[in-house]
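Pilot study result, target chain (177 residues):
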Amino acid sequence: MEKKVPAHFQRLPVSIKASKFGSPIGFGDALRQFSIEEDFLLIVGFWKQMGNTKRIVATEAAKVSVEQWQKLWSPITIRELRRLDAIIKNVNEGYQETRRKAREMKKQEPCRSAKIVLNPKIDSKSQRRLQCSLPFKTFWESLAKREPYQSDAPELFGEKAQTIMFSPPRSFKKKFL
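Predicted structure:
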């Protein structure tokens, strides 16, 4: 397949993501993502739920330079990220107060101006982490540099993508109070 991959995409670290069409692309740990210091190839398969299957309706590859990646984070600095991460991981406070503080920090500068979205994950058990995501529209405008599209037969580098995967919709347990 390497011969079909355009030269400017070759020999780069690769990040492969799958995301619901129209939804943000999840990137995981914010501190780790912020610290990326080399160009990489981002490949995203966008799906739509159809019954118990997910159908890939678009595939897109984008070379992401360090400069582009940093612009998506700007004006956030590592200092602010570490501060928010410390708030989230402070187990001496209850989860509700921690959520409130994290939400408040996200509403303020510099967090609200960045294109990357910070996603604190805080629950009543032990989950305390800071993840990040890239909005759907931002991916297409800033990285793919084209309008979003959907296809019955999406391709990547001239190869047809496998379009159907058995994967029922997620279901969540109801909380009883």
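One observation from the pilot: The chain has a mean pLDDT of 93. A full batch analysis is planned for the follow-on phase.
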